Amino acid sequence: MELDVVELSRLQFAMTAMYHFLFVPLTLGLSIIVAIMETVYVMTGRPIWRQMTKFWGTLFGINFVLGVATGITMEFQFGMNWAYYSHYVGDIFGAPLAIEGLMAFFLEATFVGLFFFGWDKLTRLQHLVVAWLVAIGSNFSALWILIANGWMQHPVGAEFNPDTMRMEMTSFFDVLFNEVAQAKFVHTVSAGYVTASFFVLGVSAWYLLKGRHIELAKRSITIAASFGLAASLSVVLLGDESGYAASHTQRMKLAAIEAMWETHDAPAPFTVVGFPDQDARETHFAVEIPWVMGLIGTRSLTEEIPGINELVAQSEENIRRGIIAYDALMTIQAERENTPEVARTVFEETKEDLGYGFLLLRYLDDPREATDAQIVKAAWDTVPTVWPLFWAFRIMVGLGVMFIAVMGFFFYRSSFKGQSYPRWALWAAVAIIPTPWIAAEMGWFVAEYGRQPWTVEGILPTAMSVSHLSVADLLITLTGFIAFYTVLFIIEMGLMLKYIRKGPYLDVAETEAWQARHEHRLRTHDGRGPFAPAGASAASALDTPPNATPAE
């Protein structure tokens, strides 16, 4: 990779974004799981569920704080490293981010404080409402950010104003209900639920292996397995929706993911494995499953999915029309209010391809002077590097299938085998804790790298979007970010491991008081029978497992 301003800016933003997303999925998922646990506590009154809520809530809090710190840094980069992008599309992109900050972030940040410090100041029901508001705020925050990102993938509800040289919003409704944004949101939050479920499963499995906090661990595995199985199935189904959206909004990305060089007769096959060769423009040793890609991408047996070569030819036509649009735009900029009507008419007819004309600015100052060879070269620039997309997608999908199998196994053991788990399965649960993060990062890599060479699909090339910085400026800040984030990562891991080793706070007095009330209810139950003292002792034996303290 050439160390120029564009590539260094991309590298810096990619590093901060992917680092930030180490925290986001766990925040999304743990907020829901903690709220579920507190709901059970309020419904049953059992102290064990309060202990679970506090324990997993503490880990959520650590992760939340680190996520906020890295997210703020990332948003500042839009002004620092991507100034022209912020100027060009700020009216549209800035609106969802502003709403996220004013509405969702303030909601979750406010109620996070009440969640941690309101246990003894709020009633059970009030504190439960707070827990759910934290969860809703966290997920609502993701919605607005993904609406902004979805617009970059599929820019709708906006048009270019040739007089101001900026994109302007024409329909907030279209931006809000952008099909790509909605598909990304449900897919991303489901991935977060899977991540948190595997985290809870793995930590709980470690407790069982160590013989600690048995009742908390078993109950946590039951919650994680049930929630995680539903989330794992959702990720696969909602990922299919993202693929369908890409088939008509980002066709080049879909073709690159599949390393589909030529257009196949419908329905297209799915390439399970292969070795894409971008120079030869073919995939070596490809193993294909007939029809599958056509069904996923078009949901029909008759609609074709265009290949890379066909899409490049279309891009070449778009670039030629973009040159015409650029020429009309320059006339409008030069003449202003005296612009001939014919120039505005030509621009209106060709403005959809203006972004393709901008691709030529990478090679010369005036796209109108481009040669045929430069046009062809710019057309091939619309093809992202295929092999990393091809393999990142398959790693993500392979892990997704594994998630379903693992969660299905633990759900079965929790529901039908009396919460008994083989030691090999518990060790496996600990070992695979990192895998949901790997899948999530692969998913974001596919989404963002697959959009290149565009910052905003079909409208603004990445090469035009950067600020006027020097390579030295970027190298210094990149080094600073790496050092700062490394320290934050060490702090995060240290705190998480510290509180996992420490385990939950076991309120023995509260637990014994609840046990006494519970046995009293059994002894005095309507005076008829089978629930009297013998029943109480039996219940007590069931509630307190062998070798467990009363708090457990």
UniProtKB/TrEMBL annotation:
<keyword id="KW-0249">Electron transport</keyword>
<dbReference type="GO" id="GO:0020037">
    <property type="term" value="F:heme binding"/>
</dbReference>
<dbReference type="InterPro" id="IPR002585">
    <property type="entry name" value="Cyt-d_ubiquinol_oxidase_su_1"/>
</dbReference>
<keyword id="KW-0812">Transmembrane</keyword>
<feature type="region of interest" description="Disordered">
    <location>
        <begin position="525"/>
        <end position="552"/>
    </location>
</feature>
<keyword id="KW-0408">Iron</keyword>
<keyword id="KW-0479">Metal-binding</keyword>
<dbReference type="Pfam" id="PF01654">
    <property type="entry name" value="Cyt_bd_oxida_I"/>
</dbReference>
<feature type="transmembrane region" description="Helical">
    <location>
        <begin position="55"/>
        <end position="72"/>
    </location>
</feature>
<dbReference type="GO" id="GO:0070069">
    <property type="term" value="C:cytochrome complex"/>
</dbReference>
<keyword id="KW-0560">Oxidoreductase</keyword>
<keyword id="KW-0349">Heme</keyword>
<comment type="similarity">
    <text>Belongs to the cytochrome ubiquinol oxidase subunit 1 family.</text>
</comment>
<feature type="transmembrane region" description="Helical">
    <location>
        <begin position="129"/>
        <end position="152"/>
    </location>
</feature>
<keyword id="KW-0997">Cell inner membrane</keyword>
<feature type="transmembrane region" description="Helical">
    <location>
        <begin position="185"/>
        <end position="209"/>
    </location>
</feature>
<protein>
    <submittedName>
        <fullName>Cytochrome d ubiquinol oxidase subunit 1</fullName>
        <ecNumber>1.10.3.-</ecNumber>
    </submittedName>
</protein>
<feature type="compositionally biased region" description="Low complexity">
    <location>
        <begin position="529"/>
        <end position="541"/>
    </location>
</feature>
<keyword id="KW-0472">Membrane</keyword>
<keyword id="KW-0813">Transport</keyword>
<dbReference type="GO" id="GO:0019646">
    <property type="term" value="P:aerobic electron transport chain"/>
</dbReference>
<feature type="transmembrane region" description="Helical">
    <location>
        <begin position="389"/>
        <end position="412"/>
    </location>
</feature>
<dbReference type="GO" id="GO:0005886">
    <property type="term" value="C:plasma membrane"/>
</dbReference>
<dbReference type="GO" id="GO:0016682">
    <property type="term" value="F:oxidoreductase activity, acting on diphenols and related substances as donors, oxygen as acceptor"/>
</dbReference>
<feature type="transmembrane region" description="Helical">
    <location>
        <begin position="424"/>
        <end position="447"/>
    </location>
</feature>
<feature type="transmembrane region" description="Helical">
    <location>
        <begin position="92"/>
        <end position="117"/>
    </location>
</feature>
<feature type="transmembrane region" description="Helical">
    <location>
        <begin position="20"/>
        <end position="43"/>
    </location>
</feature>
<dbReference type="GO" id="GO:0046872">
    <property type="term" value="F:metal ion binding"/>
</dbReference>
<keyword id="KW-1003">Cell membrane</keyword>
<feature type="transmembrane region" description="Helical">
    <location>
        <begin position="467"/>
        <end position="491"/>
    </location>
</feature>
<keyword id="KW-1133">Transmembrane helix</keyword>
<feature type="transmembrane region" description="Helical">
    <location>
        <begin position="221"/>
        <end position="239"/>
    </location>
</feature>
<dbReference type="GO" id="GO:0009055">
    <property type="term" value="F:electron transfer activity"/>
</dbReference>
